[in-house]
Design a protein that fits this description.
The complex is a heterodimer of chains A (228) and B (421).
Chain A lengths: L7 H5 E2 L3 H16 L1 H9 L3 H27 L5 E2 L4 H27 L9 H23 L1 H6 L4 H34 L6 H33 L1
Helix pairs in contact in A: 2-4, 2-5, 2-6, 3-4, 4-5, 5-9, 6-8, 6-9, 8-9
Chain B lengths: L1 H39 L5 H19 L1 H10 L11 H24 L5 H16 L7 H34 L4 H25 L12 H23 L6 H6 L3 H42 L12 H29 L5 H20 L6 H14 L5 E3 L1 H32 L1
Helix pairs in contact in B: 1-4, 1-10, 1-11, 2-10, 2-11, 3-10, 4-5, 4-10, 4-14, 5-14, 6-7, 6-12, 6-13, 7-8, 7-10, 7-12, 8-10, 10-11, 10-12, 12-13
Classes of the chains: A mainly alpha (228), B mainly alpha (421).
């Protein structure tokens, strides 16, 4: 007989699996919110500020990581959940990839002294703005999870969240267009820059773009919750 | 017969002690489980819960508990074979009480989700097999009882599933959930009073010499329902929208309407528990008393003296006060995952199922039915996470408790027989 430390009712009810997801997303979002400041410091060539912000990002990323691993260890297969356990685990994985990406960008900027080429500044700003927008949309979507459980993933909340998902997808599509533009601009000035620097700029832009991809994947996971 | 005459007082004293021991265990564990939900939701304090328990536990036992007591007392065992030696039945009932109480204590100290009902049924069967013979066990009745252990949590789960669905349709999935909550709350509170009293009243008060026709029962149940509903309206009239709390969780204000409603389900749970579980302790006790006072009459069917109920009730209340409040707090802190609206649905479903089972004389497990009802809410996709290992543990406890109770009862039976001759 499996020994239970508490009585049956107390053992039956587990902590909501949606609360840690929301807590994790808040950390991830704080991480993303530091990106504009990071690039701002870079524009000003303020290396101290860049290092400081990178440090903050690293700390937030570690905290998010800790929530994620604790979450994974507390999801036995015997749980009866209102959604698929695998979908929940991949949702938190997608969220975690976002903070991972932000950390990677901050690491590149601290490992190498990078100067932003004048030509891509506008595009980069646009890209960052779009990334902020989609991250905030993704967070709002995750904050609705409690309410969704309350109404059994149906009715008005269902429609509301479906609209949010549509919003995230639209934003992702926009960001793709911006990405293309920035990459073309970068290509046009390739000759003027040092090849290694060019490679790292492509890398940074790719990482920023990945954030929106992960946000879209989150939206897709949530759609699975709704359609179950 | 000589043995009864010689040791009569000792038998009664032993029966009272064992009965208190058993009901103490019931109060410490079972009842605390049943009422923990309302404590956790903040609808009642632990002290209030104890007060409610005292009143409604007795009410349930007196008004609706007769049939289950009868089943425990003489539905499972047929003592015709030992009419000439009634002391055997006295030993058996004492052994069964002690076995069930001891098993209950062992199990709950290990955290196993065993049921008091299952323990006593197992113990009675165990005694009957060795004390009288396998033929003395009313196997047909036992089969029905065992089937009810599987069916009753399913019924509880189905009812709670439907209740949760109805709250969604009528309240949560609407334009103005708070307005609708206040609109439909009186109806839900009416249901609590109506269902519980209807099941109790319907041809159920014969033992109190109150004979109501079907129509009278129905009318009285409606009246009681309306009365509870009126009291409920008084409690929820002041619930206002709380924009601060709603920002975090949109349904926070709506849930506040359900919080006072759980006061009523707390009462109904205590009533249901009284109607079913008090019998576990006082059934065998009553059997011993009636044999001794009648001077060795096994088959007589005298009325149960009221003081036996008082003994049972006292044991339960003492159990609740000494240990049960801790269990209530444990359940209470865990149960925060169960919002008041879900807790209300689960408790209403569980209480109705238990009272219904009591009316048919089936000894069921309040805790297991409550677990079934909570699972029903979970299946309606209404709860974050439920650990199904508990269900597995409950099924294992079903399989283990019957033989464990039986074997212990056999040992105690031979011990008592050896001591008294």
């Amino acid at each position: 007989m499996v020994a239970m430390s508490t009585n049956p009712l107390a053992g039956l009810l587990r902590k909501s699996p949606f609360k840690p997801i929301q807590e994790h997303m808040r950390k991830v979002f704080s991480c993303v919110m530091l990106l504009p400041a990071l690039f701002d410091a870079l524009y000003r060539n303020d290396q101290d500020e860049v290092k400081d912000l990178a440090g903050q990002i690293g700390k937030l990323e570690t905290e998010a990581d800790r929530i994620k691993s604790r979450y994974r260890h507390n999801m036995p297969k015997t749980l009866l959940l209102p959604v698929d356990r695998k979908d929940l685990l991949s949702l938190i994985h997608e969220q975690d990839s976002i903070s991972d990406g932000v950390e990677k960008i901050s690491q590149i900027l601290t490992n190498r002294d990078m100067t932003v080429p004048e030509a891509i500044k506008d595009g980069l700003d646009e890209l960052l703005e779009g990334t902020m927008e989609i991250s905030s949309q993704a967070k709002t979507m995750i904050e609705e999870l409690d309410e969704l459980v309350h109404v059994g993933f149906s009715g008005r909340e269902h429609d509301k969240v479906t609209n949010m998902i549509v919003g995230v997808r639209r934003s992702e599509h926009n960001i793709d267009k911006i990405l293309k533009k920035v990459n073309r601009t970068l290509f046009s000035i390739e000759k003027e820059l040092d090849p290694v620097t060019i490679i790292f700029w492509y890398k940074i832009i790719e990482e920023v773009g990945n954030i929106s991809d992960h946000a879209e994947n989150m939206a897709d996971r949530l759609l699975l919750f709704l359609s179950k | 017969m000589e043995i009864i005459a010689a040791y009569g007082t000792i038998f009664i004293v032993l029966a009272v002690i064992f009965g208190l021991f058993m009901t103490w265990g019931v109060g410490a564990n079972d009842l605390a489980n049943a009422m923990g939900t309302s404590v956790g939701a903040g609808a009642v304090s632990v002290k209030q819960a104890i007060g409610i328990a005292i009143v409604f536990e007795f009410a349930g036992a007196v008004l609706a508990g007769g049939n289950v007591t009868k089943t425990i007392r003489k539905g499972i065992i047929d003592p015709t074979a030992i009419i000439s030696s009634p002391e055997i039945l006295v030993y058996g009932m004492l052994a069964a009480l002690l076995a069930a109480a001891v098993w209950l204590m062992v199990a709950s100290s290990r955290g196993w989700p065993v049921s008091t009902t299952h323990s006593i049924v197992g113990a009675l069967i165990g005694f009957a097999i060795v004390g009288i013979g396998p033929d003395a066990v009313n196997w047909g009745k036992v089969g029905k009882i065992v089937a009810s252990w599987v069916v009753s949590p399913l019924i509880g789960g189905t009812i709670s599933f439907l209740l949760v669905m109805s709250t969604r349709k009528l309240i949560f999935n609407t334009d103005n959930p708070l307005k609708n909550a206040k609109k439909y709350a009186p109806f839900y509170i009416f249901l609590v009073g109506f269902v519980i009293s209807l099941v109790t009243l319907f041809k159920g008060l014969k033992h109190l010499h109150i004979d109501l026709t079907a129509l009278q029962s129905f009318g009285l149940a409606v009246l009681i329902g309306l009365l509870t509903s009126a009291v409920g309206c008084y409690f929820i009239r002041n619930v206002k929208e709380d924009p601060e709390a709603d920002r975090d969780f949109h349904f926070a204000s709506v849930e506040k309407v359900f919080t006072p409603m759980m006061l009523f389900t707390a009462c109904s749970m205590a009533f249901a528990h009284g109607s079913n579980d008090v019998a576990n302790g006082i059934g065998p006790l009553a059997a011993v008393i009636s044999i001794v006072t009648s001077g060795g009459e096994v088959m007589q069917s005298s009325e149960m003296p009221i003081w036996i109920l008082v003994v049972g009730g006292t044991g339960i209340v003492v159990g609740l006060v000494t240990l049960g409040y801790k269990v209530m707090l444990t359940v209470g802190t865990k149960i925060t995952e169960l919002t008041p609206s879900r807790g209300f649905c689960a408790e209403l479903a569980a209480a109705s199922t238990v009272v219904l089972a009591s009316r048919t004389g089936l000894p069921v497990s309040t805790t297991h039915i409550l677990v079934g009802s909570v699972l029903g809410v979970g299946l309606a996709r209404g709860i974050g996470a439920l650990d199904l290992r508990v269900v597995m543990n409950i099924i294992i406890s079903w399989i283990v408790t019957l033989p464990a109770g039986a074997v212990m009862a056999m040992v105690f039976f031979f011990f008592l027989k050896g001591v008294f001759g």
